[in-house]
Write a structure and sequence with these properties.
44% of the residues lie in helices and 13% in strands. It is of the alpha/beta class.
Length: 458
């Protein structure tokens, strides 16, 4: 990444000089302004990556300045400087698009960490700005043509869109989205949010598998200053920040059982208490959860709370894997070709029809995400402007049998293990993933099938 340009907006010259000196020594390009009017002029005439903005300013409130910056300069990220007792303002700022904040009085370490977090945020900016297409699955042109935001015209996709539309208008119903990795669960969650009356409020994504158990309560419910070692200031939790909006809990099946009980209590009571406080804070948050695991089965195995499952599954949307709606592959492929041709500065004018034929034979264990990555890689390596089969790297062991000649694996595979893997996968699919029935189809014992499933990672 090129050298970042950072604008410091604070009416205290000491603060501007202190931060400016530190950032200059850190090789950033630094601009300074004491008033909002000065800041607007700098923004108009320079490409500013990050604005460090004090919440309390003369001329205008920092929150109002933030709103104007995000409206007029959407590519610029904003870090707020909060004073003592400004936590409500910080929450408002985060909802209004601030990337981060640090408190006054501050240490240079606070500034450094905030810049680092925001730099990572900037690197993901393209993805985050495409909230309506989540990882490239939405296209405005397609929306205009078909009247909806999800690419695909199969009955399966039409059914999902219908369910999204229905539940979006029922404000407080929790939703559980089930589906394999890469099928677009977060896309569906965002779609529900945007179709609802909550669309102008915060949508926050939480990856439950990435949260250490010791930080769960602090992250979800917040804490008071001094409530535990390291709690140097009051902190709002995700339920507070997402108030009036939507909280998307991805990979909910990975949440520890103890924390599941605490989440269930909040869903029932619609209030949270920060760590170190007895005060109840009412929250109005729609919760949408997602998992690629069978939560009901996990519940019967005591690996997931059944009461939480029943609370979350008031309305269930199951997203089929791409191999079950292959008729959508051409539309998805064409969109990804256009998207990455533009994004990567490539002039891709044509592609061989044989590519679509081969994609239709492919099993897509990574689903739509895998198709997207395949297209991106092909466009990166292509030098002719005409995509061909040679630009794609199909894994022979993941290619399904050709429906015309069902006895011969596609690509004439003579790899015994690859062929065996294909047969096992097909037997599992045909038996609806019942191991006993699949073993009968393969004419082997259940134990032998189980060993092979573990061997091949199926």
């Amino acid at each position: 990444m090129a050298k970042l340009s950072i604008l410091i907006v604070d009416d205290e010259q000491r603060v501007r000089d202190e931060i400016g000196e530190f950032l200059t020594e850190s090789k950033y390009m630094v601009f300074k302004a004491g008033l909002p009017s000065e800041a607007y002029g700098i923004l108009e005439n320079n490409d500013i990556d990050i604005v460090i903005l004090d919440i309390r300013l003369p001329e205008e409130n920092g929150i109002d300045v933030l709103a104007k910056i995000k409206k007029s300069f959407p590519g610029t990220e904003v870090i707020m400087i909060s004073g003592h007792g400004d936590m409500n303002s910080v929450i408002e700022a985060m909802r209004s698009g601030a990337a981060d904040f640090f408190p006054k009085p501050f240490r240079m370490m606070d500034v450094q960490y905030s810049i680092q977090r925001t730099t990572k945020f900037i690197r993901l900016t393209e993805k985050l700005r495409e909230l309506e297409n989540n990882y490239s699955l939405l296209a405005r042109e397609f929306q205009k043509e078909h009247g909806h935001q999800i690419i695909g015209n199969s009955n399966a996709i039409r059914n999902i869109i219908g369910l999204m539309s229905k539940v979006a208008h029922v404000e407080n119903t929790t939703v559980l989205i089930a589906g394999e990795s890469g099928t677009g669960k977060e896309l569906v969650a965002r779609g529900i949010h945007y179709l609802s009356s909550r669309k102008d409020n915060f949508f926050h994504t939480v990856n439950c598998s990435a949260i250490p158990e010791t930080l769960f309560e602090s992250e979800f419910f917040g804490h008071r200053k001094g409530s535990f070692t390291g709690a140097i200031e009051n902190k709002a939790g995700w339920f507070e920040i997402a108030n009036k909006g939507t909280l998307f809990l991805d990979e909910i099946g990975d949440m520890p059982l103890l924390q599941q009980a605490k989440l269930l209590r909040v869903l029932e009571e619609k209030s949270v208490s920060r760590i170190g406080s007895r005060e109840k804070i009412n929250v109005d948050v729609r919760v949408i959860a997602a998992s690629n695991q069978e939560l009901l089965k996990m519940g019967h195995e005591k690996k997931f709370r059944l009461d939480l499952y029943h609370r979350l599954s008031s309305f269930v949307i199951s997203i089929p894997p791409l191999r079950e709606h292959r008729e959508d592959i051409p539309a998805l492929f064409s969109y990804f070709v256009r998207l990455y041709s533009e994004r990567l500065g490539k002039n891709i004018q044509k592609y061989d029809k044989a590519i679509i034929a081969q994609l239709n034979k492919y099993d897509f264990p990574g689903n739509i995400r895998e198709l997207r990555n395949m297209v991106e890689r092909a466009i990166i390596i292509n030098e002719t402007g005409h995509l061909g089969l040679a630009d794609f790297n199909f894994d022979p062991s993941e290619v399904v049998r050709d429906t015309v000649d069902a006895d011969v694996p596609a690509f004439d595979i003579f790899d015994l293990e690859a062929s065996e893997k294909i047969l096992i996968r097909k037997a599992l699919e045909k038996s609806n993933f019942n191991k006993s029935k699949a073993a009968e189809l393969l004419k082997i014992s259940w134990q032998s099938l189980d060993r092979r499933i573990k061997k091949f990672g199926l």
